[in-house]
Amino acid sequence: MTGNANGFGAPLRSWLLGAAWVAGSFVAFFLLFFDPLDVHPADSWLQRTVGYHAGPMTAAGGDGEAASATGKREIVFYRNPMDPTITSPVPAKDEMGMDYVPVYADEAERALGAGTKVAIDPAVIQNMNVRTETVTRRDLRHEIRTVGYLEYDQERMVTVTTKYDGWVEKVYVNYVGEPVAEGAGLFEVYSPELVQTEQELLSAMRYAARFRDAPDDARLRAEALADAARARLAFWDISPAQIARLEETGEIFRTLTVTAPAGGLVMKRMPGLEGMAVTPGMEAYHIADITSLWLSVEVFEDQVVWIRPGAEAEVTFTYFPGETIRGTVEFIEPELSEQTRTLTVKIAVPNPDGRLRKGMFATVVFDPVLVRDAVTVPTEAVLRTGRRSVVILALGDGRFEPREVELGQAQGGLVEVHSGLAAGDRIVTSSQFLLDSESKLRAAVQTMLSGAAVPAGAHEGHDMGEMDHEGHAVTDPDEGADPDEGTDSHHGHHNHGA
Q1: H/E element holding 241?
Q2: CB-CB contact of 229 with 286 (8 Å)
Q3: Are 273 and 131 in contact (CB under 8 A)?
Q4: CB 138 within 8 A of CB 374
Q5: Contact (Cβ atoms closer than 8 angstroms) between residue 288 and residue 153
Q6: What is the pLDDT of residue 68?
């Protein structure tokens, strides 16, 4: 009897366990997919696999109110994680497969009230390394940097010649590069023609002295002879001092000392000059005044427009570190080099102490003014988005606002602002792209909420009738579909149940 009971009890227990397992599975299946308690246990799995969201309904009406009553945050729409101006009323993915970020009702209301202005905690501003700078007015300059070499000033070069025939008997300056002072003797020359003119001057002076008390006509003729002899000596470059000494002493000088007409360095000397016969026009010496030198530089053809005669330039030499010399443009050659496409510019550089030498290399910086008294900002402060240029305006107390500006000339890390800013405004010069992204997000939220609490279609040209979570076509609600079906977040559960 006991054996029969045990044999009958084992199958009964197995049947009861099987029935309990089937009942439990059915209850779990019912709770999981039909969700009578509204806890959405399958949401996370569906969201990860197919991008489906089974949260509370976001449509305006009773379902939205019911969702708010449950204490859950209401999702108004979804935005592209890379571009906040692209939004969607339903969950979606971007081109890279990233899920759209939900925007909740409380966030949207705050954004709608704030517009495009951004308020950030001071601690966050410090962590973001936000730096600001005041907009100022200044002259916008166009820096041109080039190099050149020194040469003699062509306006300060003289050639020593004689205007009469003669012979050089003694030379005082024998070396090229030897400095000479103005009026210093260079060489002595004997000229019979010169001696004859000296004799004529002395004879005319004695003749005029005898007619000093004669009638005016005779006295004037005698004085005219003396004046003619003086003029002839002056035409031969005999100095007034030498003529005066001849008249005072009354002695004829067999040789005459030729002096330097200007001070400077001897650039050229006739070799074997002593004892040589000289003729009118023969170049005995070349002397260059080195109190001012010319710096020859080359500038490219697109830079010539900014350089004019009389413009100043900063000249520096590696031989004299830390020193800057101001030069002036004296001459611009009229022809452009066909090989280098450059133009030669001559700059006058003062050299009062004679330290500068011909052939020295120098660095030259021109700094002409492009725009005077312009409103300028650092180039790094401007966000260029296609045709638009935006700067972030610092309003104080952690508040920032994007401002569209119209730009002009840009040079040296600065850019001219035609409109959009005024002198005294404070702008952000670093991390402004983060503030601009936040501002775009607020602008997108404001645009979405300005017409209705819930967007009915895609923003910025995204037609939701042509895109679903995975890029497949979605039925447009306007083409005969029930609007409730397009917004009911439980629609997928009902399909599972069916």
Answers
A1: helix 240-249
A2: no
A3: no
A4: yes
A5: yes
A6: 43
pLDDT of residue 51: 44
**pLDDT for the residue 21:** 80
How many CA atoms, within 13 angstroms, populate the side-chain half-sphere of residue 157?
A: 11
| 302-309 long-range Cβ contacts below 8 angstroms, 24+ apart | 303/144, 303/366, 304/332, 304/343, 306/142, 306/144, 306/366, 306/368, 307/144, 307/332, 307/345, 307/366, 307/368
Sheet holding 157-160, edge to edge: 157-160, 285-288, 264-269, 179-180
Region 113-117: what's the mean pLDDT?
Answer: 51
Q: What is the pLDDT of residues 30-61, one digit of tens each?
A: 666 655 555 555 555 544 444 444 444 333 33
**pLDDT at res. 34:** 59
Picking from 45, 100, 106, 54, the residue whose alpha carbon sits closest to that of residue 78 is 100
d(CA 88, CA 1): 74
Say what the pTM is: 0.50
Tokens of 474: 């979605």
One-letter amino acid of 156:
R
Q: What is the DSSP string of 87-148?
A: EESS--B-TTSPBPEEEEHHHHHHHHHHTT-EE--HHHHHHTT--EEE-EEEEEE--EEEEE
Residue that the structure tokens 């004859």 belong to: 196
- Structure confidence at residue 80 as a pLDDT band (50, 70, 90): confident
Q: Which helix (H) or strand (E) holds 35?
A: none
Rounded to the nearest 10°, the torsion over CA 353, 359, 360, 366 is 100
Percentage of residues in the chain having pLDDT higher than 70 = 70
Q: Summarize pLDDT for 257-290 with one digit per residue, the tens.
A: 888 988 888 988 988 888 899 998 889 999 998 8
Count of other CB atoms within 10 angstroms of residue 74? 20
Compute CA distances 312 → 243, 326, 360, 367, 417, whole Å. 45, 7, 20, 8, 27
Structure-block tokens of residue 275:
């004892």
390 Cβ contact list (under 8 Å, min separation 6): 382, 383, 384, 402, 403, 404, 405, 436
Q: In what order do the strands lie in the sheet with 87-88?
A: 87-88, 75-79, 101-104
Nearest residue to 408 via CA among 370, 381, 380:
370
Both structure tokens of 186: 């260079």
- 477: enclosing H helix or E strand: none
Q: Tell me how far apart the alpha carbons of residues 100 and 406 are, in angstroms, rounded to a whole number.
A: 34
For residue 151, the surrounding DSSP H or E stretch is strand 144-152
